[in-house]
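re: ur question from earlier - yeah i can do the single chain one, its not a big deal. heres the input i used so u can compare w yours
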Amino acid sequence: MSNQSSNEKKAPMALFIIVGIALMFGGVAISNNPAVKSAMVPLKEQGLPIDPGKSIAVIGVFLILFKVFDMFYFGPLREAINERNTALERSFSDAIDLREEIKKTKAEHDTQLTKIEQEARERIQASVKEAQDMRAGIMAEATSKADALVAKAHEEINREKDKVMVEIRQSAAALTMMATEKLLGESVDNERNRKLVAEFIEKAEVPRA
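and the output i got, formated as tokens:
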């Protein structure tokens, strides 16, 4: 592709140079032609020093110089400008791609951050629920143990109370028997009397709260 483009550039350049040389030498030849010189004398006398040969030669030189300048100055300048434009377009395209990549990365980052926050929130809620369940379990266990201790204490109190009441009844019966013996002056210590005294004490006992 580059060789074809180079050949295409060389062809017009060679054509311009050939045409320029031809015009330059042709103009010189026309300018030196006696017939042309004699034909130009009336114009010079009228104040119009026109020399078509020189004009043609100047056009030929201009064509040659134009291609030379185009090859060594304008051409490289155009290439530099085109390369600069291409580089700018590439940089602009890269900037657009980079912006899109940044947007994509930011979106992914936001999505990941939202996911992390959601997971953290769920973990915190799970930890709070676990702590609440643990607290409820501890409270239930403590309540159960406290109830058991209270029930056991009531049982022990009732046993002790019954034991004391038995002892009190026995002491009261013995005291009653002793008091009766002193009043009657004889022994009343027999099974029937003991039974009557026990029944009396039991009926006279204050009811429990």
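DSSP finds four helices and no strands in the chain. not sure if urs matches, ping me
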